């Protein structure tokens, strides 16, 4: 089980991250069991720092589908930026109409708004492992995240899929989405090439990118994804001593 240790005035991300240490609030978590009396807890050694994976790829490349499998196997919390934005539209919030029109046009919603929704979910979660799916979709998204959270992701998945396959999948998706039509898809693919590929290249150069061949069955693709996480020891995902 996990217990919140403290809210800190900045994120306690990956130990090696180069971060703006005053940018954000977040929580540290510590393991506890009923067998260990509180006074014996070694907070500094048990607190967890968030583990963040960005999941990138064009529309229909299979991000959401593979995220579900990662959640099942590794206990991540899945935060789909698109789902959070659609929820905002459905809630009739003040920003809803603007978000709807932006999505219909295949464009990108202002970064601060999307980040606010992601941040809210993370802060109210008991988990420390997060898959952030469909984000960042632009260099502006990426830079704003870094500035607001004061950190970078631990790793980045990129589902590489040919356009004709993505179009086919999106047109067969059948989820009643306003952007799953041929006109919007064409716009989204242009936006993906122009705005998202620079983000992919950024993480490639940083050595954080795992490029996955997005063609094949769901299981074939997941076989490439699984080793990305199975080799990581999440037990060592501690907060730093200074922070907790
Ligand atoms: N490997 C695959 N082969 C065929 N169809 C797939 C595959 N992966 C996902 N799909 C289907 O394609 C559609 C888009 O997948 P989804 O996971 O929603 O992609 P994304 O989140 O990248 O847009 C869904 O209907 C999904 O069931
Ligand atoms: N970071 C993001 C993510 C999504 N959006 C908007 C624009 C996207 O076309 C829609 C849908 O995103 P979503 O990730 O659900 O789409 P796909 O799963 O890739 O088909 O939401 C955004 O503006 N900014
Ligand atoms: Mg998706």
UniProtKB/TrEMBL annotation:
It is found in: Cytoplasm; Nucleus. It comes from Cucurbita maxima (Pumpkin). InterPro entries: Adenylat/UMP-CMP_kin, Adenylat_kinase_CS, P-loop_NTPase, UMP_CMP_kinase. SUPFAM superfamilies: P-loop containing nucleoside triphosphate hydrolases. Its main location: cytoplasm. This is UMP-CMP kinase. The gene is LOC111483492. It holds the Pfam family ADK. The keyword Transport does not apply. It is an enzyme of class 2 (transferase). One of its GO terms (molecular function) is nucleobase-containing compound kinase activity.
